[in-house]
Model the fold of this input.
Amino acid sequence: MRCALPVLAALPLTALSLAALPLAATAGATDADRTRAEGYVELGHTLFDQGEYAAALEEYRHALPFADELGQADAVRWNIARCHEELGQWAEATVAFEAFAAGAADAERAAAGQAKADALAARAFAAVTVECAAGHDMLIRLDGGDPRGCPAAWDRVPAGPITLEITVSGVPGEVVRREVAAGSTHRVEPTPAGRLVVSGEGIDVMIDGVPLGALPPAGLSLPSGPHTVRLAGRGRPPETHSVVVPPGGAVEIHPQAPSPPAPADPPPDSEPPLVTEAPVDPWPWVAAGAGVAAAITGGALLAAAAASDDEAHAAYDRWRALPDSASDAERRALQDDTIAADDRAVALRTGGWIALGAAAAAGGLAAWLWLDGPPDADARVQIGAAPDGALFTVKGAW
Done:
């Protein structure tokens, strides 16, 4: 089956032979492939003749995977480029004609495709150049593409709005937005960069959140305008400065002087002695209190013994004064009173002297403890009565 390709009518006469190329059978294509490819191409021609360029473009694209294998690569690629051209898609048409020229079967067809591409490029693209002063570490990024050093140039930029992002020494700076027209050359001159100088050595610098380390003595190029500079370094507190870098000028920061070193700790032998209060020893006070209590008790007992002696003497005097006519019972009662009062006096006197002896011992013990220190844990004093007098026992280390 032979197919006419009207979209190739603009080619030279030698290229018109594309219209008569059959879909030659190749080893890699099946009958079904050839049938589908012929259908795509035929429908594409019909739609193109009807002015349905978008629909024709889709059919030609469906045929493209089979084009090389079936010998229709030039025809299908040319037709795709022509559809873009009729749709006013100048950039896409330019690229499509360049693809046709790159893969054309002969030089004449390649020249025809390149000529179409060159003619359409003037309607699709603009040129953009960025010029800047030398000596600045400036990078330019166009519409988010790869950064280029300044000066920079792009010879094929799609017409319309563009965005240029400019960084200096890694610090984001100016953003330039322009509208570029097809076929024009648009020149951009960024605001000149300035310079930041930080006096001193060993100072780490962070600018607008970008760590830059220590700056060279001559300073660092920066985008002109306001910046936040943070300084830090060994032996100095961090400090923050707000600066405005003038275009083409310089600004200098003088950091604060580093803090003096902290005084060293004094050597151990020069430390003042630790003064602590000695704990209060209760034992001398206990002994003194016991001595006072024993003395009071002893005095009271001796006073009671003296009273009992008086009672005994009074009973004895009454017994002697009884007349001879006194009965035996009367005499016995007075004798019993005398003996009882005398026994009571003896007992009270004994207890009184024991208490006074204990008071004397406790007072001596208290005086010794105040002078010499507390006794050990097993030390104790025992005071009591013995069959023939008082008992005073001291035990333990004092």
Q: What stands out?
A: The longest strand covers residues 171-180.
